[in-house]
Amino acid sequence: MAADEWTNDATFCCRACLAKRVRTTNRNGSVFVQGTNQSALHSVLVPMTDQMKRFRGDRHQLVCLQRELQAVEDAFDGDVQFVNMFKKKKIGIQRICRSVAQEKRSV
Strand, coil or helix: what is 25? Predict the structure, then answer.
């Protein structure tokens, strides 16, 4: 359990460094966690600007659209299930029957 927490903390720190979300500070100006010699993480994190937030939101939306497109392409290229064909035909026939019934009512 302790090893998992340490691994998670180390991964978080490495990802923050790779994303350039950590700024360097000198030892004299850093804030320490009470009762330890370790600095608090909030003292080294760079705050997100509005542009960074907008970019993250746009990137998330792009990834969602790419996944949706991939799902549609996979469905198009994949095998056709006969059950789905029968359901689509049934729905199509029901729509045609409704439109014919509406035309009869309007005449």
Answer: coil
